[in-house]
Amino acid sequence: MRKAKDPNTIDGRASGVASLEEARDWLAARRIEDIECIVPDQAGVARGKMMPVSKFLAGPVMSMPVSIFTQTISGDWPADDDTFQNDEADRDVLLEPDLSTLAVVPWEEDPTAQLIHDARYADGRAVDIAPRQVLRRVIELYDKRGWRPVVAPEIEFYLVRPNKDPDYPLAPPTGRSGRPETARQSYSIAAINEFDDLFDDIYDFSEQQGLEIDTLIHEEGAAQMEINLRHGNPLGLADQVFQFKRTIREAALRHDMYATFMAKPMSGEPGSAMHIHQSIEDTATGQNIFSDEAGEPTQAFFNFIGGSQKFLPSVTSIMAPYVNSYRRLQRAASAPVNTEWGYDNRTVGLRVPNSSPAARRVENRIPSSDANPYLAIAASLACGYLGIVGGVPCSEPVSGGANVDEIDLPRGLLEALALFEDCEELADIFGRAFVATYRAIKQAEYETFMQVISPWEREYLLLNV
User: Fold this and answer.
1) Given this model, what pLDDT does residue 9 score?
2) What is the pLDDT of residue 2?
3) Domains of the chain: total
4) Looking at residue 62, what is its pLDDT?
5) In a domain, 43, yes or no
6) Which of 110, 130, 326, 346 is most enclosed, with most CB atoms within 10 A?
7) Do the Cβ atoms of 279 and 362 come closer than 8 Å?
């Protein structure tokens, strides 16, 4: 299996195109016919329009209804209430292309490109509830302090057999041996080789989009994989996770499989996470502010951890955004259930990996793979930021197992939403409009979930109560 080359990536972006004229040349050189003009919604789903390149280059003003940022994962909209920031007229917002994200769509038969857009109101203001803008707002907080956050996401996912009936449980797919996995295969090369053709396509698709995979490993679960990305700019890396999810799903479909980023797709198997490695550079010097000149950890490092410990429970609804997400956060499982921290300890919510002083970082292991990457990275960085500026102390590091202790995190979506809505410090960062909109969306999704009767209820209640 070969590693993807990345000749075009600039600062974690796809092409580095900076102007419409450069985009015109880029599109012509690749004979692109159509272009997907996309924007990530609250779930991290790509919404947008497809148009001919000639129309895009003619400079029309593209627009979409603002309601794309208030839609639930089931395609519904929350009911109006006193706090939900809803536009009753469902007015248009304008789409502004981020030309640096221009990339090919390698799985399309006709030459097609994709381009991530930002959303703006008619008066030029950024749409404050758009996930990309939320992350930008957090990055700007760091920038005003002379800091530059650096992140590196790790995304876990499962390969499963095609499942056309949601009433049936998911199952591992069949690899080249003709047999599905039944045993745990952590870090197994042979288990990865079962799906060589699929991973070759993932690498090819990634290379064509300017996406760089750092490592690929087999995780603990049956046909559970993990892809690690290179560290870099938070917005650029969030774009990459957004694009990688599309890429992996499309590649899997080519091989008669599904790739799922559900947090807990199968009973009895580990959940899937999106771990986020974080450090901060001094903008003027480029030095990691988590280490001093002697290579020792700084007060900023410990305060970043302290802020994460204090505020992560209040952003759990962003890092575990669905009812299913909380099935992953179970005691004595492979997922953390607390905000403890420790050196090279995978049972805590905040792990400090072994590294050189220049690479000292904090790994947030709480987010699940179903989280919107823009929002999860924004939330994680916001917690650390509040810790540094507020001088929040951290606890002592934990050296032993911590995921059998009491659960520090919310146990369900409604509890998590209440913590998010009630946290004044986070509301100031995310904005009241976003907090109200996000709560309304998740509340509506929960109500939809409550309309479904589960197999557990039929199994234990049907004839016993």
Assistant:
1) 35
2) 45
3) 1
4) 86
5) yes
6) 130
7) yes
pLDDT for the residue 84:
64
pLDDT of 272: 96
Residue 198 lies in a domain: no
Cα–Cα distance measured from residue 352 to residue 463, given in angstroms and rounded to the nearest whole number: 50
Structure token pair of residue 153: 């996401």
Segments of the chain with pLDDT less than 50: 1-13
The dihedrals phi and psi of 210, each to the nearest 5 degrees, come to: 75, 25
Confirm whether 460 is domain-assigned: no
What per-residue confidence (pLDDT) applies to 304?
A: 98
CATH code for position 120 = 3.10.20.70
- Write down the pLDDT at residue 167: 85
The answer to whether 158 and 272 have CB atoms below 8 angstroms apart is yes
Domain hosting 51: range is 20-126
| Three-class SS of the chain | CCCCCCCCCECCECCCCCCHHHHHHHHHHCCCCEEEEEEECCCCCEEEEEEEHHHHHCCCCCEEEHHHHCCCCCCCCCCCCCCCCCCCCCCEEEEEECHHHCEECCCCCCCEEEEEEEEECCCCCECCCCHHHHHHHHHHHHHHCCEEEEEEEEEEEEEECCCCCCCCCCCCCECCCCCECCCCCCCCHHHHHCCHHHHHHHHHHHHHHCCCEEEEEECCCCCEEEEEECCECHHHHHHHHHHHHHHHHHHHHHCCCEEECCCCCCCCCCCCEEEEEEEEEECCCCCECCECCCCCECHHHHHHHHHHHHHHHHHHHHHCCCCCHHHHCCCCCCCCCCCCEEECCCCCCEEECCCCHHHCCEEECCCECCCCHHHHHHHHHHHHHHHHHHCCCCCCCCCCCCCCCCCCCCCCHHHHHHHHHHCHHHHHHHCHHHHHHHHHHHHHHHHHHCCCCCHHHHHHHCCCC
The per-residue pLDDT for 91 is: 87
